[in-house]
Amino acid sequence: MNQQQPAGWYNQPDGTPRYWDGGQWTADPYGTEQHQPGADRPKKWYKKKRFIIPAIVIAALAIIIPGSGDDDTAAPAAELSSSAPEVTESEAPEPEETVPVESEAPAAVPSDAAEAALVDDEQAEPEEPAEEPAESEPEAPALPVEQLNAISKAQDYLRYSSFSESGLVSQLEYEGFSASDAQFAVEQLDVDWAEQAVFKAETYLDYSAFSRTGLIGQLEYEGFSNDDAQHAVDTVTVDWNEQAVLKAETYLEYSAFSRSGLIDQLEYEGFTREQAEHGATGAGL
User: Fold this and answer.
1) Does a structural domain hold residue 70?
2) At residue 73, does pLDDT exceed 50?
3) pLDDT at 172
4) How far apart are CA 192 and CA 176, in angstroms?
5) For the chain, how many structural domains are there in total?
6) Does the residue 171 lie in any domain?
7) pLDDT digits over 16-55, tens only?
8) Considering the domain boundaries, does residue 207 fall inside one?
9) 10 Å Cβ neighbour count for 178?
């Protein structure tokens, strides 16, 4: 045997194992107890105590812990199931109706040509000049009470009668207003004096008979201008021959006349010769 052969078991020529300690062969074929075959071989890892004992402990814990956990969790689960209220079919919530939502159609996107046309139209429209703020008119000063009363009185007169401008001023002066206040009040009114002349002419014809010239003279006496008086007489509908008859009858009611005398009186009132003769004849003369 080579002296440099490392220590270990080697088979002899007869097949028996013998231990070589690195310097010599042992006395007996099997050597001492510590050199029994396989004594110097390392044990496999799963045969070592440091692995076997912890493995046994872990296996025992794996068996004990899951069992105890099931017992602990089973009780609360049972309590929850027993305390949960039962839901009957009548108490069960009805399913909500689903309302179909109509999808809005996507807005049409104008093409480039349409946008260009819109821009051209907007540019073609002339811009309106900005309006200048209107200047606020100064507030009119408060009127004296006397003038306010004169205006109110003039409005009252025009509600139930017709007047010329000068006739209304005279009436206010008769009521005690000063000439200046009466004139001021009449000037504040919006009155059509020609229309007032028509109303006055109709009023006269309702209770008296007039010739055309006689009615114009009466309106001028009331303060209307000659133009307003003539406009009123031409506006009203009158049969002047009939007016001559009515005037003749009025004269004969309180006085005696000859035919010629009655005709002369009617001509004096403004009737024409033909109208006067018609009136005298109509009155019975």
Assistant:
1) no
2) no
3) 95
4) 25
5) 2
6) yes
7) 787 777 777 776 665 554 555 555 555 555 555 666 677 7
8) no
9) 13
Band (77; pLDDT cuts 50, 70, 90): very low
Token digits of residue 114:
């349409």
Residues present in the chain in total: 285
Residue type, 272: T
168 in a domain, yes or no? yes
pLDDT digits (tens, 9 = 90+) for 168-204: 999 999 999 999 999 999 999 999 999 999 999 999 9
Range of the domain at 172: 144-191
